[in-house]
Amino acid sequence: MSSTSPCSRPRIRSVRRLISGLCFFTAVVLLKGCSKSGESSATTTTTPAPPPSPLQLSTNILERSFDQLLVSWTSEYRANHVIHILAKDALSDYVGRLETSEHPGGTAIVNLVNARSGGYELRLQDSHGTVIYTADVSFRLGDDEPTQGHITLEVNGSLRISWVSGSSGRGRVLYKTGSAGWVRSLEMADPTTYTVDDLCDLPAKGSGWRDPGYFHSVLIPNSPELTVQFGSDEVMSEEFKPSSALPPGDPTPHSVGLFGDLGFTGVTTLGGAEGLGKIFYGDFQSPAQTAITANKNIRLNVLIEDTFGMQNPLMVSVGNHEWGSTNNSQTWQPNFTNNYMLNDAGGECGVPFKHRYPRFNDSGYAWWYSFDHGLVHYVMMSSEHEFTNGSAQHRWLREDLAKVNRSVTPWLVFTSHRPVYQTCTNPGMESGILQHMESDIKPLLEEFGVDLFVTGHWHRYERTKPINGTYHALIGSPRYLDPACAHTRPWWSEVVFDTVLGYTEMKVHNASMLECIFWGHPPNGSGQSVKVMDSYVLQKASFVSRMPSLVDHPIGKVAPAVLLVAFFCHLAGCSSSSSTTTTIAVDRTSNSTPNVLQHSYDPVKIQLAKDRQALAGDTIVFSPKDKPSLSMLRVVASALSESDGYDLRPVNPRGGGYTVSYRTADGTEVCSTDLTFAQGDDEPTQAYVTVVGDDNLQVHWVSASSEQGSVSYQRPGTTTPTRYDETSSPRTYKAQDMCSIPATRQGFRDPGYFHSVTIPNVAQGSTIRITTGSGTSRTFTPSPRLVAGDPLRHSVFLVGDLGTTGGGMLGGVSGFGVLQFPDSDPGRVLAHVRANEKFRLSIIYGDIAYAGGFSTVWDQHGEETGRTIGMSYPLVASVGNHEYVSYNNPQGWYPDFGNYEFPDSGGECGVPFSHRYPIGDGSKANYWFSFDFGVVHYVMMSTEHNYLNGSAQHKWLEDDLANVNRTKTPWVIVTGHRPMHSPCPFDEYNGGIADALKSDVAPLLKKYKVDLYFTGHLHRYARTPPIDGTVHILAGSGRFLESVCSANGTSPMEKALDIVGYVELDVVGRSELRGTFWGYNATVNEMTVQDTFAIGNFR
After folding, report:
1. pTM of full prediction above 0.85
2. Residue 17: exposed, middle, or buried by beta-carbon count in 10 A (0-12, 13-18, 19+)?
3. Which CATH number fits the domain that encloses residue 869?
């Protein structure tokens, strides 16, 4: 068993060292009932070793409170026996127990607190209570040892160090800052204590009583790099290095731990095991408590009822299990509930709480208070004292909230043990409390713009949507879980976890953004690991006010007509050989022509007929009408839901539309129908906007028309659009332009014509419509480009190896160019990105569609990215091995290292890529280029072309980096498809490439102070620390994942994850970048925050 005290930091020792210190042939400690060994015989071979003692300890003298003690017992006592732990000053009853059957190995580690009792006696007993063996353990520092230390913030900005000791003398604290000398601070008043008569009811006044010792506290100045010791002239604690407090308004980014109902290892919710004040040492260590202790980002812990330690400043407020009692003379007894009269505190009535957490004001003990830490003002109310309108607490809350200086502390976090909102359908006696929290406290939250309301009490996790601007987070499950209840799910309920232990990490990024992450241990999780189970971001309006408003984004905001196609053919009861003729029924929706979609990528709902069931292997196939033998899209019929069906978004294939057929497992067509597009083959599809020149935009699209097209651009407030015509001939390619199969044969289909029109930078809210031949696109509203030097804060979407929904890595399903639906990954990355209105730029650095030589995959991918992100803000793409590499590429690069001769592109050799993502006028391919966007200079290099010293690309790269105007664009980001560093060992091929990049490209990154190098290729996420000043980000898991590596690579890594996801780069301004890796969390079926990083620019 491994545990971490909430009261003091343990001195962790090696279990192996403890075990090796045991001698199983001569006792390491003197045990009661065991005599000393006699004098040894002259001949050792004739003296048998004594048998091992039934119960053995690694030591009988512990150095400090809560040090680890290894307890061992022999094999005959590994079942149906118990080890009771008794305080030496009260041997009539035990304080803890250890069931031997819970530890089949015959050993257990326990952490014993120095309870000022002269130590402990351990008794090995059988099931009848017969004592078999006893052993003693004591503490070297004695009963006066300072224990249970913690640090809190005071209103005046100082720090209070509090601890417990057996000494009634005044204590002292030694502290120092950095390498400076020690400073001594003395306790200014006598330590406090309490007697049994100060408590109010049983069991606190009866079986639960023992002398609590003396409670000490000393104030010291708040300083950075603190080292602290506390105690007396005779006995001092070990040294602690707590996080210093942030003064009000300090913008230092940091994390805060938020949780309630923490409890303690070995106890239940009823005051120890079985409610009898016993500690059961077979209990597990809370994964949440382990994670909080291990999270080095946390600078402050805020508990809504409970305890922690000397790791960070700790702020607590009272809960029902500290205060509630039937016999408390100060108990609030409102007429709307009897809940406050329950003996939840076991008769303590707040007495131990206020001695352990001293906080006073002019009126006495401060059961409610507030404090500032960095950019946040925290309000700690007491839901256990009267809080209704007109009460002393309510008046204080209003006054405190009204005085908050939001220019210093723009964020306002409000805590209460009991919530305003929870979703259990039967809250019992809590109903009245919930109603008055809503009627009396909620209006304060709204009036004063409280950002986050944090509560506990109920042992689960819940989070609301913003309710009149306030998020409500119920975080009451770091250790205990309530029995499952029936939940209502009103509109405001966003997340509910009944079976997840966890806590919330609140990341204070800056004055504009807070990020909250719920770290949870799922019910099927193993060990002590926690995962991101929920995350949400709070932003100030000043940050998002200049973000684009969406008209055609995300898809479905203005819902297009939906064509309902119900397939009645080949239903249950029909065999593949059935000659029965069946039909396809079409539900004609209003204002739409049957079987005609208005635009490419409009949704088609595919639904089985009522009470019918598809047979295994049945599919619904979409084939271009001009090539019916080609299966372009395929829907697995058996995966369809009778009630919901499946929404498919097909690209306009430029062949007169689709023949949609129902086919059996052997390919037999049972029935079919046609699906066409109102705009015909000339419809502009797969459109996206990109950057060109210093301040212009370029619109790209695909159409069957070879005629020059045009773009109509209309600024907001005007009545007539401006038309910009295509100035060069549209481009196309033929099968023979590529270099090998399948691209030149079975994968080829006429790709249509590729069009480009340059337009001036758009104004916010402007609209664009594209026309080619007889076809017209839908209306788009792209965001403006940020010109070089524009400091507007924005986000950038960065990803590698994105792929196509419905496709695999080899050119569609099984490498035959077929896109199959439903897909296990229904485009999670793009769906998450398109819902985030902060994005102003997208960058895909290689392995874009994974078309594998099949034109049809490119078509579907182009429409998927264009409709989700490409026409919402500029999209920039660079080449990867799956677009370019082939064994017979006439322009290929074939060095004596790497795998550049592999058939990764399916014979495309860059031809489709260069037509779809042209640079400039598109007259020639340009595989490396750069551009400015806001305060960032982006360099898009190609790792698929020669980048070695002396090459054309290397000369260009150095020249480009040397001429960056760091006044306009202080940030420089380089992207390349292949990485220099990996969290896993490189194989022979990728290792050779990485070595070449490190030898020839990395020196340029160092020389010109490149800030970030983004790569993909390997399907995972990893982040290095700065290497020669450059942080390397491997984010190549846009859809696919590598096999989990069995060993670590040689490169330093700060984070490594095998999770599908992407990077959101928050360009805060000229002096700060922030990154977030959003990864798919299968447990909650959501994209959640998996990693964050920040870079400061001090040049």
Report:
1. no
2. exposed
3. 3.60.21.10
